[in-house]
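Batch manifest, entry 17 of 40.
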Amino acid sequence: MSEQAKPRIHIDPYLEWVKKEGLIVHRGFYLYLVDVETRMWDRVGVPAAACHLNGRGDFANMFVFDLPPGGSTLPQQHIYEEVVYCLSGQGSTQLEFADGTKRSFEWGERSMFAIPLNAKYRHFNGSGREKARIVSTTDLPMLMNVFHNERFIFENKFDFSERIGKENHYGGDGDLVMIRPGNNLWETNFVPDLDAIELKPWGERGGGSTNIMFVLADGLMHAHISEMPLGTYKKAHKHGAGVHVMCVSGTGYSLLWFDGDKDYERIDWKHGMVFPPAEQQFHQHFNTSKRPARYFATGVGGLRYPFLAHMRKATGATRDGDKAEVGAATSVKLGGDQIEYEDQDQRIQPLFDAECSKNGIQQNMDGFFPNKAAAE
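Output type: structure tokens
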């Protein structure tokens, strides 16, 4: 059969586009983003790489960008959304909207921000000596596979002026909306330091957990930050694919398994380690550092616009007036996706005790078990 006669079937337009762009691609169950290799990406004018992790699902990806000392990206504009996190270095971002309005802000290590939909923008390295490395989570795979037309994605002139947001949202300020534990949100476009932002209690997730959800540039992308106090761990839970979990501060480990598995996959993490749990894969996070540990999660579908079924379930959203029966912190015994401490595998607590001893810290979980027998 000639090349022309071969049927065009089973095409992934996003992956075809990545290949055409000449991007280096990193794959794996997890990645340490601080160390991944980059090479020049002509479209953006700086070295970059695509990260396709095993659990990324169908809608999300990650890009890593290296801004050389004193360098900058080329001007960019596109109709996919992205949430950007600074792994190292410092710099600034300049935005320009269709009506001529401009915004700019300076960022550094552990800063997080969103690019409003289809805004023109450019990233600048603020140092003349050190490179800056930033990473973005995007919904480009979804958009490219829907439209399979890069000119529509990158040369679209439609004005999404409603996405600009308040001017003070680019200065580190935002609007706190108290909804309920686990769903309290901070609406903004820029957070100067994810290690410093105040979080709110979410006791149902266990271990003295705190968190805050983000609404960024009124967008579809999900983002939240969670913290585990010293010597604690969270309850195991599961959800859909595509939620990229990245360590922001502290150290520890995560255990991942599917229902029925006899053994765990273990990931030891530090700043810049990222992994997206696979579809319906249980995962549990443990803090074994000498300080509170935080992780940052990004994906497609958030609190304002859940989009995906697992996000609707996690946020208690409903369709057609149906009553929300379960949420993110509902026990599997009640039809939810969370394993309570009294139901967890008996290997969990002894392993955590040993890891805490190895790191010279005291485990602080006893008060979170419903009774002494459950702890043992």
